[in-house]
Fold these 2 entries.
Entry 1:
Amino acid sequence: MSLSQIARSIKASPTLALNEKAAILREKGDPVIHLGGGEPKSRAPMDAIMAAVGALNSGEIRYAPADGIPELKKAIIRYTEEFYNRKVMPENVIASGGAKQALMVALQAILNPQEEVIFPSPYWVSYPDMVRLCGAIPVPVKPEDGTFYPRLKDIEDRVGSYTKAVIINSPNNPSGAMYSEEFIADIIEFCEKRDLYLIMDDIYHRLTFDGKKLINSYKFAKNLSETSKLIIINGVSKVYAMTGFRIGWAIANTKLIEAMTNIQGHQTSGPSVLLQKAAAGALNGIQSPIESLRLTLENNRNIMIDCLRSFEGVKVTKPDGTFYCFADFSAYEKSSQKLSNFLIDKVQVLTVPGAEFGWEGYLRLSYCGTIKDITEGIERMKWALDPNSPNELYIGDRKLVRDWT
Ligand SMILES: Cc1ncc(COP(=O)(O)O)c(C=O)c1O
């Protein structure tokens, strides 16, 4: 079979593959603990469900504008006013099939083959492949000081004549790091000066801890006119626990939104009207579930960090937000893929190998599940990895015997 060069350059999404693996193992009856997940476990907001049910009951679900139904765009405009203190026009907004599609059509609208897109590492698994899907070249940049916090210089050093865009994701998947206001201000100024697109992936912007407040990029932008190359990406997946609804959006200049709409129009004719109604319901509805989700995640983060800190050999940086923790396990095993496979095989704990995010020796652990999953998951990992562990571990009535060193 002859596949395109682009198709051959793209891997399956490792996180989606892991979800499938968890489902298969559970079906077999294995006592799996999934610390690799990327979605909150709370229910979707009732306002979202009621809005979708109302639309469904009408029995009239039709084609709609490719850039989103007016009702959702209105809700996004209001949201942007509330959280970004900025009034945008409907022509500056596109609703897409998740933040993922919003990012994808933005990249397709700005990239020519061989152009480069820079993003700090560790990075969200999809950025490199999304850039490759456009025939362009991903340029991950690892902060020189070895932390999760890039400095402008790290990025500046990699900008060349082919650089077209920079992607910033803060709070960050996988590290949970929230970049400083100073860095955000610097990168905005830098991209404006160098005439680069700057894509701010804000999908976790309200899931922040320790009193940290979301950072509004518009506050630092000098150019807020229609020539601005700042693109804000957001969506309902994480903050509203609506991952399966697949609704996200982008805010950008009119010309770019028009180009993105043309692309999206041919790809999908826009996201499902029903799910757009649900997203509008969530954005316009009662907001208290978000604060309770945020508080739950902050508490879960604290528990996970305590568990990991009692784990000799593991190095961990406290996440500022999201529901991920990116911990250094290289003292046990340098290959994160091997380590992740080992943990599934021996103790049925699912983790995502750091290599998928550009960092070897690390594992991404999620704390969006239950406290029991977090504590028991880390306990099992400790048992498997610590050579001084007792020889046996019981999971329910299942006895595991440590037959490795
Ligand atoms: C950093 C980042 N951006 C975008 C997305 C995609 O969000 P959505 O589910 O809305 O497509 C994710 C999902 O994991 C993510 O972690």
Entry 2:
Amino acid sequence: MPSVLFSPIKLGGVELENRIVVAPMCQYSAVDGCATDWHFAHLGMLANSAAGLVVVEATHVERHGRITHGCMGLYSDECEAALKRIVDFCRRTGHAKLGIQLAHAGRKASAQRPWEGGGPLKPGQEPWETIAPSGLPFGPDWHTPRAMAADDFARVRTAFAAAAQRAVRIGFDAIELHMAHGYLAHSFMSPLSNQRTDQYGGSAESRMRFPREIAEAVRQVVPRTIALGARITGSDWLDGGLTAVDAVFCAKTLKAAGFDYVDISSGGISSATRTPTAPGYNVDIAEQVRATGIVTRTVGLIVTAQQAEAIVSDGKADMVALARAILDDPHWGWHAARTLGADIKRPNQYLRSAPALWPGAAMAG
Ligand SMILES: Cc1cc2nc3c(=O)[nH]c(=O)nc-3n(C[C@H](O)[C@H](O)[C@H](O)COP(=O)(O)O)c2cc1C
């Protein structure tokens, strides 16, 4: 039977060659938000990974919305030009469609790079003021954010739309909003971080109001020829936090706002969260979200070709995203194709690789 993983899929007006997605992964290697030669090598390689879609890391819509000093941004002409150079190169040499994740880190901003400790920036490390729905820190010793006021709402909404316009100009095939992992949009949705008493807090509808406003502002500036999606939370994995029921509600809201797809991730709302470590830990939640009729991707400890194939062929999700497994093996897609007997495109320079090494294997390309 032909592989479902390696069959094409449509996201709005965009067709992907297969259902493997390289998940967005921060590289902490930007300079004032601008991509560098590290991104050139990293994304250039992934554009030839045989994934149908490569999603560029969380790229922040304002300078103070970055997680770390090394995070990517799309808030200046310099950021836009630096990223365009890389996207143009990926297009010339690679086969994957290219997406970008637009984000605002909220109360998890002003942090150290993981290899510098990953905690909040300390005095002397140029920390900055963070914003959030309520003045509640992410965890002990983290910065206490300022509860957002009317001008913050307007500025952040506008910043998302402006960054989306830059992404359109750069020529991305897909734009996805980061509404998970405890960053700004997620922190509005979760009752653990949103204790507002105005129209942006309280019921699930009210907590969804600001993420929905952002989604609508972005939808207005992104043409239908570009796929528009969001990464959302399947579970906070904490008592009193978001659950699969909330993920279904969020997906329905985004579908009504004209979004083409969602990606089910989870965790990250507080330093107390313990995300599960079981293979495919978000898959069952994705299945519930997919029942709403929106194209659904999932992520989280998807590691083997057979596991990925089973998720899509059993109808639990339409696509899978991989992060750590792809860092470990950037040619994961090539090897999955060999295992599943599928055909993939390789760059001309590498055409002589696998067939000579694996003469008897079920593979093509
Ligand atoms: C180095 C690294 C950077 C990451 N950066 C992002 C990011 O920019 N945006 C995001 O939504 N998730 C990010 N994640 C989370 C991954 O996209 C993914 O959801 C998570 O690692 C679980 O998938 P996995 O088990 O395949 O690694 C990152 C993960 C890693 C390992």
